[in-house]
Structure to design on (123 residues):
């Protein structure tokens, strides 16, 4: 699930200004410690988030604010702010809702595994 969780991110435009970036300075995947333990993920590990539509890699951040079975990524980060230059939309269906013209998704089914730094593209 992608949610607006940073007060200074009204929309993705604000990610282009350093003074608006959250303190961690990178997009993180929030994961409940129970789900992390099931996957041998440590707080701060790189994780691969994927489904049948795409994949991306982020750093894991343990949070009890997220219920077990749910993973969240913050809204508003630019593609350039992720290791592979892909944001949350890499995991979504680009179809639009009939008659509205905007995306018709709010969450997506994904899998999360521990990633290897060696598997990332060179920057």
């Amino acid at each position: 699930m992608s949610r607006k969780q940073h007060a200074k991110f009204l929309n993705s435009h604000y990610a282009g200004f350093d003074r608006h970036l959250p303190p961690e300075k990178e997009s993180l995947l929030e994961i409940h410690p129970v789900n992390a333990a099931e996957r041998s993920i440590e707080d701060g590990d790189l994780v691969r988030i994927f489904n049948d539509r795409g994949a991306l890699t982020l750093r894991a951040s343990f949070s009890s604010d997220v219920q077990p079975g749910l993973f969240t990524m913050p809204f508003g980060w630019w593609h350039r702010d992720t290791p592979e230059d892909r944001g949350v939309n890499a995991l979504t269906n680009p179809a639009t809702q009939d008659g509205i013209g905007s995306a018709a998704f709010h969450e997506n089914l994904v899998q999360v595994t521990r990633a290897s730094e060696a598997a990332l593209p060179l920057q």
